[in-house]
Amino acid sequence: MTFPGEDFRPTFATNHPEGGQTVADAINTLLEGMRTHLVSLPPVLIASAYFNPGGFGLLASELEQTGTVRLLLGADLDQDRPRIRPLASGLGRRAEREQIKRALEGHQRRLEEDRDLLGFSFEADATARRLVGWLRSGRVEVRRYEKGFLHGKAFIVDSPMPGVIAGSSNFTYAGLARNKELNLGQYQPGTVRAVRDWFEEMWQAASPYDLAGLYESRWQQHQPWEVFLRMLDELYGAEVEQEQSVRTRSRLNLTGFQSDGVWRAQRILDRLNGVIVADEVGLGKTFIAGEILHEAVITNRQKALIVAPATLRDSTWGPFLRDKNLRADVVSYEQLTGGLQNAGQLGAALQDPDEYAVVVVDEAHALRNATTQRAEALRMLLAGSTPKRLVMLTATPVNNTLYDLYNLISYFVTNDATFADSGVPSLKGYFDRAMAMNPDDLSPEHLFDVLDKVAVRRTRRFVRNHYVGDRVVINGVERQISFPTPRVHRVDYNLDDALPGLFDRLAIALGDRLNHYDDGSAVILDAPGEVLTLARYVPSRFQHGEREKQYEQQNAGLLRSALLKRFESSAYAFQRTLDKMIKDHEAFLSALAQGVVLIGDAFREWTSSDSDTIDDFLDVLDDDVDGVKNADGFDVPELRAAVEADLILLTSFRDEVQAHQAGPDPKAEALVEELAVIATEAAAEGISEQQTRDKRKVLVFSYYSDTVEHVHGRLLSAIESDPRLACYRARVATASGPDRAGRSQVIAGFAPRTAGGAADEDLFDLIIATDVLAEGVNLQQARHIVNYDLPWNPMRLVQRHGRIDRIGSDHQEVFLRCFFPDQQLERFLGLEERLQHKLKQASAATGVGEVLPGFVGRDINLTETREEIDRLRREDAALFETGGASALSGEEYRRRLETQLANPHIRDAVRRLPWGSGTGFVRVGGPHPGVVFCARIGDHPRPWFRYVPLTDDLNVTYDEQGRVIVVDDTLSCLSAADPGGPETPAALSDSIYQAAFPTWTHARRHIRDSWMHNADPANLQPRIPKVIRDAAELVQQHGVHLGEDQDHLVGRLQAPYSPRILRDIRASLAQPGTARQRVNHLAELADRLGLVRQTAPEPLPQITEEDVHLMCWIAITPG
To answer: Which stretches make up the PLD phosphodiesterase domain (predicted)?
Structure first.
């Protein structure tokens, strides 16, 4: 600034924005005056502790027109240093050097921070490029004084008309335009000469400093792998470092990957009091749980409970606990369900639930249906006054629907807002959103942000890739970890060879040829006698003034599907189901003749048509004495006609199948041929008798016990008559149904070396079993599995495969045979798809999402299932290598990051990347271009990822509502940005580089809007269902007698609970008696279920777009 009457040489400079005065104006006035009054452009000398592009921008126009410029930077004395000298810092020159070193490191960080805060935009990019252009012009030299502290600041014009402005202002935007600075201008030759001499002394002692390189690194084309690692480091870096620092030796001699799994599980347990260990089958989830049990039982002297299927209780957990010298109570699911009432009493299997500190649940997917008695029992166990750490073991946390996973999580995450700090204000809403995206999609990629916080999930491929050379002790012998290679063999057969034309008739009966199959009714009345109406199972369809009850629709839909699947399994299983249905129809018509309609109730345990629970459903359907209504409220003639037509049709099917039972069975004959091949190969390959026996051991799996019985009979006959199968004589057993003691004996006799005891004999080489044998047991002594039925649920095959494909197998290869009705396969799959679609249509027509009050309808992934079946048909073993879609987790990314960060050069390169660093690569076969951004918001510890797909001409895309499409789930973003490895070259055209700027604007706004949504308290209030509101209102109006507990009970009730809890609350409201009694029912229910008052999440602080900082980005170009 200058005052009136003075020349262009200001004597005083400060920042006074209100008065239009800045230090930058004063310096520009000086530089312009010198430039215009002198013949030659004068050199400029600048000394400043700090520098940023904002400061340069204020002086750029003049500095670009001056003579040479020397810029001296240096570290200022740290104002935050302690006034009292730390004794550990030492004395003398050494202490001073350490102080200077720390100051220079801080100075470097400050310069990098100023560079990073420049932002990512056209304007910021232009500013940085202008700065670098000036620094690289050949007229500018930069040095940094590193032998001490630089506190002086001066802007010197070195010319015959010398001048200097010196004072407090750094060469920064704040110093030149905003801060309350004090600077004086001095033009006396002697004074200016003294300042210049001071500068020269410092300059000669300073070192060259590449300030241009610091800023050029913003737009250097970094390698995709390096930038991707930076994304992973933002997400997992702190966690990986913490794990490395606290990693301890296993007390049970676990493998490296198992020990790492224990650490991750313990970390989740510390945060949530629960964890899902979802490692793929055969990787030793039992050992991970064992290490956790060791800490609880041995180190902490706590009591532990293990809940497991009865087979695993006896064959796995008993021997394991004895071998590891661990004490814990072990009960079956049935013991848990029936034993809580007398828990703690003398002779009871369970102690007082409050005695247990740790509960391990094996094969936890058995609890995925929240409406079962076993689920109720577990919640009661966990609901005591003592918090319990829950460890859930399952290789298949998602079986039929993503809500399977939600139900498992809800056992230990009781507050719907637990993950609000991760951008998930409502856990239930989070799953609802994922299901709404695609109800048929079982891939949990849209749930990654929560799944990564509650589960440990690794696969065989993961272990092979990241734990090369890891060793394990098996039977006292240390050996390197290895897995057998899975081989899939397809076995074809033709249904029509045994039952010609019957499948065509059955398909018609199930509605295959109806054109208007998408109506909302579960009852089909178009062609009675030709098409099954299933009216007997949907009597509400004929009730005056009523709509079809949705649980009845569910029953009818599952029955149609079960008939189809049992027909494919075996004619015998189909016949047995027909026998039950015929008996059921006859009983219904008899009751109808007496003036009553058998209603029955939904069988809540039945959730799948590919299991034996259909038999239980049909057996108990007419035993419900409360399931009777007077026929006066029904259209009896129409109902009777429909049921009678079905009875005739069902009987005709049964009679035709029965007539062919003694005839040939092409499916069973195909199995005989496969067993003959297996026996021949074993005899040729086996060296010893034991090895030969192991190589011919076979597990034949069917969904249905009726089929097991049928196949067993057929094989026994074939083995006796066929000399090729002589080795199997007297060595065949079955395992199905509830005979657990017999099942344990079969397991031990089939695989005594891996699933039995020291005294067990090798008795069996062939087992025909249902999936009761597919959970938990170690049968790796065998190398063959036969999947006798069409793989309707591929995850079942993964479970079966895990029985023989395990760590330490003596077999280099294991063989999985899959049966396909080759000529009719497409019709089978197409009909099942129509049946499922029909069921969904009926549910949609009812207008509610629950099949029962509190029961979410079964939803299977038809698209993924068909893709997996097609791969199996092509003999592709990928399903068994990867564990299926549910294998997705963050473990792969964590280990890749840990491996790379172990190299200090890579670690430094990744962490020194400037904010806003970008790159690109070509993805062969990629559908479209796009950009993935990794950002941070202020000092919040969590990174935010966004993937913005682009059109071919590099514009953003829009949805049907006209909104820019921005993908915000972390896994999709990481998957899109993953270049695969360091060998992928960078490929970033100028056009996509330029497109990244406006694309970031959309991503940044999306991040801000998402954050601000959770910053509004109104958006954080949970959506409370009407039944909850009714219950809370009842307590408020009639719960005065509860005293202080009245308000507390209202608070405990008001939360978006799972459908199962809603069902129980609805039942309490429907209890007979006074309002006060219903309040007491609700209070008892809240105590029994352990309902807790849920605190609303704290709203996030308000932000602007300026708080959203881009860390790095990767552009993907299809190629």
So the answer is: 146-175
